[in-house]
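job 3f2a | input accepted
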Amino acid sequence: MKNYQKPNEDIWTGRTSDQQLYMHEKIKYFDLSNTDSTKLNKNSFAILGYACDEGVRRNQGRVGAKDGPMAIRKMLASLSNHFSEEDHIIDIGDIICQHNDLEKAHRFTSETIAIVLKQNTFPIILGGGHDLAYAHYQGIKKQFPDKSIGIINLDAHFDLRKVTDQRNSGTPFYQISQENEEFNYLCLGIQRASNNRELYDAADQLGVQYLENDEFTIDNKNQIQTLIEDFSASVDYLYLTIDIDGFSSAYAPGVSAPSPLGFSVDIAIETIRSICKSGKLISVDLVELNPKYDIDNCTARLAARLVYDIMQNLSKKA
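job 3f2a | predicted structure (318 res):
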């Protein structure tokens, strides 16, 4: 499995106890290369790293997001464990990109996500570049070919660029729109200064629903909740993708494309919780964390808390 690295148990460290008080004591490990994937625990969370930023490089962005999965895990490790014994949280390792072959990495990612979903396990994918979204969606469709999948993207960018040469971190949702009969896409936090007219035209032509950044605020939480409820009702399942660069750089400086006017943590948390409560969420990813530019790990800490909050909202204890 050339595109795979087994879990690194050394990442998960922190204070110790005899009662599993911390996340690094709760976490289990599963090596996909040596273990039968059908033995994944049912009704568990599977953390998979997408240690790849080739799509960012192709999109002329700042490379470094391949180190995002490790940074998020390190920040998750020391958090307190308030999960029940019924909640199994498993690190299943990382997908890597060999020889800049993004297409091969995408194929392997899709296959892996489909396997995880087949075992009734909830995937949480840690990026890596946002090109992950194309592979992630394809993995969901591989497992649920007859179901309608709604994509909710918290992001400053549409990522609807046409593929003129090679796919990259700016093309995933355009690729999805062209390869599937249905395209159900809701994007929250779009910034007009970060998306040119062609991208707005593409969004309109493809029937994309979106809220711009000045509308994606805590003051509009009721409107946003209604929008999410209506969107959720129109599909069978939801796939949530969170681009960390959508947050204000006051919260998230360590990203591939920082934004001083990004959205706030409060509305993101409210939105994520609404999506979790829909009962239709089946897979999540967080992308574009770039530890190379982080300050005191604050962006990695934010990403880790988002992962933690998602699991709490979906856990058996919730």
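job 3f2a | The radius of gyration is 18 Å.
job 3f2a | closed
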